[in-house]
Amino acid sequence: MNLSRPFVRRPIGTVLLTIGIALAGIAAFFVLPVSPLPQVDYPVISVRASIPGASPETMATSVATPLERHLGTIAGVNEMTSTSSVGSSRVTLQFDLSRNIDGAAREVQAAINASRVDLPATLRSNPTYRKANPAASPVIILALTSKTKTPGQIYDAVSNIVSQRLSQVDGVGDVEIGGGSLPAVRIELLPFALNRYGISTDDVRAAIQASNANRPKGMVQGEGRKLQIYTQTPALRASDYASMVVAWRNGAAVRLREVADVIDGVEDTRTLGLFNGEPAIIVLITRQPSANIIETVDNVRALLPELQAQLPPDVTLQVASDSTNSIRSSLREVEMTLVIAVLLVVLVVSLFLRSVRATVVPAVATVVALLGTFGVMHLLGFSLNNLSLMALTVATGFVVDDAIVVLENTSRHIEAGMSRMKAALLGAQEVGFTVLSISVSLVAVFIPLLFMGGQVGRLFREFAVTLSAAVLISLVISLTTTPMMCAWMLKPGGNNGHGNGKPPGRFGRAAERSYDWMLKRYESALDWALDSKAIVMFVLLAVVGLNVYLFSAAPKGFFPQQDSGQLNGGLRADQSISSQAMAAKLREVVDIIRKDEAVDTVVGFTGGGRAGGGFMFVNLKPASQRKDSGLAVIARLRPQLAQVTGLRVFLGPVQDVRSGGRSSNSTYQYTLKSDSLSDLRTWAVKLADEMKQQPTLTDIDTDQDQNGVETVAKVDPDSARRLGLTSTAIDNALYNAFGQRQVATIYTELNQYHVVMEWAPAYTRSPNALRDVYVPATRTSVVGGQAVTTQVAATTSTSTSAASTSAAATVPVSANAGLRNASTGNVLSNTATTLVPLSAVAKFEEQSVATSVSHEDGELATTISFNLAEGANLGDAREAIAKAEANIAMPTNVRGAFAGTALSAQQSQGQQVMLILAALVVIYIVLGILYESLVHPVTVLSTLPSAGVGAVLALLMFRMEFSIIALIGVFLLIGIVKKNAILIIDFALEAERSRGLSPLEAVREACLLRFRPILMTTLAAALGALPLAIGFGEGAELRRPLGVAIIGGLIASQLLTLLTTPVVYLLLDKLRRRGKNEHALSRAPAA
Prior knowledge:
alpha+beta; Multidrug efflux transporter AcrB transmembrane fold; Alpha-Beta Plaits; Multidrug efflux transporter AcrB TolC docking domain, DN and DC subdomains; six-stranded antiparallel beta sheet; 31 helices; 32 strands; 51% helix; elongated; Acrflvin-R; transport; xenobiotic transmembrane transporter activity; transmembrane; cell inner membrane
């Protein structure tokens, strides 16, 4: 049966079918989404909660732990981490790749609602969640600046206008505003004035809440009219609060301005944002894990003109950083690489065929196969990304193979004098099985990858399916369109190899002489190999052993380090540093980075929950405008940034592939777990210090640095009871003084603002301020002593002896914590409240403390992050960390494991050997089915070790890691190099069956006659990969390992397999015949 016959006999229908495939692909190309890589992001949801002023331990035990207990029951969670710092907790849930993020979000909200009963009453509002990974880099950063507006006013505009509109954009997962805070009325208490009047801070808080009441008043209804009841608007500005009466003393009103400085300020004065050195409000926009980055950024940019029009005229909205600029450039480079690869493949075909008509045949097959693949990608929901376009680039060398095999066989028959129609039908029929074997076995290579899980499986899947689709479409074209074009386009009479029937020109004659020279040399080498089978087999076995050694010795990596044109990182100073000093250091760092010739823009901000730290985002100039890579820029900046005293700066290039939901200052993470928080903190610091001594590791950082300073107020319980002090009163007094406590809410038409109360800054700059804290006493004292802890930004220790206090009459304190932001109904204090100095019942000590508490999967955890030194790989890192743990004799109750990207790399490397073995097994099964033989597939598989040796040697020569991109190259080589053996085996078997040649004669003739198509297809595959290996333009570092591995493997396999394949064929055929004879003898009847 000849499958090609109906297509050859009906050329018009075949042409229209081919055109239809091409048009469908062209239409699909323009609607395919664009992205840097296949969708490999884990669904991540981040839950946040805050209690301003609460310590990390308090947030961890009272907020994070209850949330974790409820969130941990959600199905599909594969990682749950939490970080609690001063005043805030964040729980991050990472789900399985198959989990729908919208469905997960509903379950997260239900868990938050269920946890509310276990959360403390001081939590101002319910925890909120965002469908975004807090560890992910922003897709676009906006900066708002003004020469006349204050940061608070700009922040207000962002909160009212920009933030909400951006959150509604399709694909946006989170909008974070940094560098400022909302406007607020700040009540800066004067402690000595309060003491003079006998007014406690709770008295002031209660008075503000009573005056700020905003409750429903009802209505008056009667005689046909209905009237709503209103009262005057509550206080809105500082001037409204300044005249507020907070107490009565001796019949005279004590107004707020007499005991406090009342100003219009912001909620948090300890924040700063900079854009290119100028104060700015920074807007960080993160996409949802499932959203397309290009579409998300385009949607955001489309909204910016409208947002700018709604902002005040003197506020400028600018794009500070756009991560899609480098992505778009990289994709343009890959598309250009694809075009160049197609042209190179057509060129190599034309050099061999030297006929325009003959060249058109495989050129049409190549173009139609690639265009048809775009249609398949659209149907499967794929995108145009670096990997799918790389698959198409590599496929140019594959899809042309089938057409070349059919064309070359047809041309051979035409040159022998056969008519074009008959030659086309016979040529397609003869090699139909060969073409089918080559294509099906190539597709079979990728079958194991389709069942691979995790991020690497997702990366492989789109690449494998795209390439397989191109190969299968090529198979169809080569058995339909290609023979039809041969029957109707080739010149009769054997002139297809000499261009239009004319004698070859000087270049043609040179090419022909070169080919004849190579054929003669190959014939001599082939005869030697057939006469020296033992030597050839020894070389083959040596290559197998070398392959195993090189694979085990080659440096392993996860994903090539990308030069995305963006750098990000963190700042780490002593956690007791003041906000003013930290702001000065941030300005110094920004100034240093801005001066570098490769830097375009710099964004930095500090403050909020980032005590003693901050974040940096650096946008480099386009690759065409700078000489150095991102890593080279970091190396140049590192010694300059090291000169900033008391500060460590971590910078790294932004990468497209990242795992885990925990933020860190370095790329790779190592997590320690323990049941004891003190042991965890102790050994985390020790291990981090020891890791700094390892030469293969750099940029060591940990989230448990013991450089925070804590002032502990140790209360004497007996003295507290005797003086009528409760733990609640002590907590409130400290919180009112130092916690920037939000004591009331101001409601306006567009937003809600807060009244923030604390001591005036002049009284909070030293731990000595605790001596001036006075606590209101009550008539009933029922609570025992309790140590109270607060975080202060100070480095000077103090100790205070107990002081006596005279007895005085007391009145009930009018504050009521149960009714926040509302009137309590109590009258203002008109009698001096008994105030007891805290120093009368407590002594104060300073101690070091970690500034955050972390959990992972419900256990106490801490993360050490690190980068690799130049020339080091993750295997070296594993050895270095194991050595560091041994050096410090880390106890067994502290357990360590890789996390995030390092864990994904470790898992992918553990699967590599099994994937390669699975691919070999699948190929053997497929070829065994096609050949109906257990022996011939082994001959085909014998060609693979040489390709592996060539690939790894090429990677080592160019100092590249064996990454997952290089692994893809190895899988491609498995599919490519077996083609040589298939071409030889098919022809030899046919010669044995049809003409009765001996195995030696058949395989020798097959090698010589198939030398031309083998050489053509190998050169086509190599030239298709050449643009990838050269690696020009942005994103080249991602493409180079693939091209280098393919070309290195092709060169090695071409040199060896043309000699080893016939030898292995003969030896296995001899074993097959011997086994058949022995089987026949065993079945023969005894004489």
